[in-house]
Amino acid sequence: MVPLLLLPLLWGGSLQEDQGYRLLVQESVTVQACLGVYVPCSFSYPWSPWYYYGEPFIYWFREGDDIHRSDPVATNNPGRQVKPETQGRFHLLRDRREENCSLNIRDARMSDTGVYFFRVERGDRKYSYRDKKLNLQVTAPTEKPDIHFLEALESGRPTNLICHLSLVCDGGRVFSFSWAGDALDAMDPETLHSSVLTFTPRPQDHGTNLTCRVELQGDQVTMERTIRLNVSYAPWNLSINLCFRNVTALKALQNSSSLLISESQALQLLCVADSNPPAQLSWFRTSPALNATRISSTKILELPGLGAAEREFTCRAQNPLGSQNTSLSLSVVWKPASLTGVVRGALAGAGAMALLSLCLCVIFFCIVKDRRKQAARRPEGVDGEDPVMGTIAWGSRQKPWPDGPPDQTSSPAEDAPPSGEQQELHYASLSFRGMKSREPLDQEATSTTEYSEINTS
User: Fold this and answer.
1) Measured distance CA(63)–CA(225) in Å, rounded
2) Strand order in 90-92's β-sheet?
3) Domain stops at, among 139, 170, 186
4) Closest CA to 19 of 55, 59, 47, 53
5) Cα(320)–Cα(340) distance, rounded to whole angstroms?
6) Which residue range forms the structural domain that includes residue 323?
7) Residue 154 and which of 15, 290, 422, 448 are 20 to 30 A apart at CA?
8) How many C-beta atoms surround the C-beta of residue 213 within 10 A?
9) Among 185, 195, 207, which Cα is nearest to 161's?
10) How many domains does the chain divide into?
11) What is the mean pLDDT of residues 422-430?
């Protein structure tokens, strides 16, 4: 036999409902932080109409809390305290119906997320409805703050920015504001904690991000809005880039730069300016005076070849907020004039002759050097010998010898030729035929003298 206690389960009901304890409540509720939510609820319990115990006490407890030691989050029992974190925010609705357990939650917080159960006490009837519980989910607000500009942002002019949040907490909880961004790096941090921001934009602030953050006090909830700044400013950071023809590389030049360039070199000058709104770029020769003639209205200036007068160029960038100029001086290097065919031929011939002379000098130097080496190896006593012919020749101017021996008593005056008579010239030639070097036969014969024929003429 099936026990009687299990029959209600087989019938699809519950023991709680079978005994008269019924609870009707939405089991899952979601609410955004700072906002409120109303949770309808009704209950029933068995009691005897013959006994009157007064109004029942009802409670909402958090899951896991002890019903005897822990404080409830809401109750109508004046003798019980509620949790400090829910006091004034979780309310029970009182009406003529005694079986109303509806819960009104104001200024929901992220910490309120959790599971709650209901309990009733009346006389000796005390019961906790644990079969049905309330699952409360508190999420971050989906609303974001807005950033308003009272006027357009212009470089150098102070302006006010306002961070506004339309969200209003049910409990009157206040918000804290803060600003962040690269444009605020030079500002006092104490001035960044307000819904109104006063700052002076700079050219470098254009295109940077600015963020306003709103935080709920007493809760880990942050809402923020990020915008990109649009700052108007006059042209600045003006520069000229040089690009040679058929060369893709650019060379950046600073203000009033000078450059050495060939007079036949074709090049391009590219002017680059940083401004907002974009600047109108123009090119001038020398400084752009009031009556100067504009040579180009584009950022690129084509220079196919530089003449004598085209050596300095100025780029001007201008927008409604101002203008800026930068100049470039080009120093022209002139190539020498081209030579005619005749001059080129003459120069070529002169070069060939110079080369030939150099070769002859080298040959002559080698011969002289060789002769000096041979003379250094020549034996002593034969200084006048021709190493090739073996002949020494000389000439003398002297008086002929008589057939007999000279008269020892004759005076020099007698020997002198008559006045005005030319002396006879005598020449001699010595020939050493077949001269050979011979070794001495013994120690005593240390030298050998040979004679050769002497012919006079």
Assistant:
1) 37
2) 37-39, 103-105, 90-92
3) 139
4) 47
5) 59
6) 234-333
7) 290
8) 19
9) 195
10) 3
11) 45
Residues β-bridged to residue 426: 396
Residue 4 located in a structural domain:
no
Distance between CA 326 and CA 139 in Å, rounded?
58
Q: In this structure, are 239 and 223 located in the same domain?
A: no
How many Å is the maximal CA-CA distance in the chain? 209
Residue 159 has pLDDT above 90, yes or no: yes
Handedness of CA 380, 386, 387, 391 (dihedral sign): negative
DSSP SS3 for 361: helix
Assess whether pLDDT exceeds 50 at residue 399: no
Are residues 183 and 208 in contact, defined by beta-carbon separation less than 8 angstroms?
yes
Predicted confidence at residue 444, as pLDDT, reads: 43
Structure tokens at 108: 């929901």
Q: What confidence score (pLDDT) does residue 53 get?
A: 67
Fill in the amino acid letter for 327: S
Question: In this structure, what are the phi and psi dihedrals at residue 265, rounded to the nearest 5 degrees?
Answer: -80, 125
**pTM for the full model?**
0.60
Check residue 138 and give its pLDDT: 96
Q: Which two tokens stand for residue 178?
A: 């803060």
The encoded tokens of residue 353 equal 């002759």
Task: Report how far residue 131's alpha carbon sits from residue 120's, in angstroms, rounded to the nearest whole number.
Answer: 14
Q: What is the pLDDT of residues 253-290, one digit of tens each?
A: 554 456 666 666 778 889 999 999 999 999 998 777 66
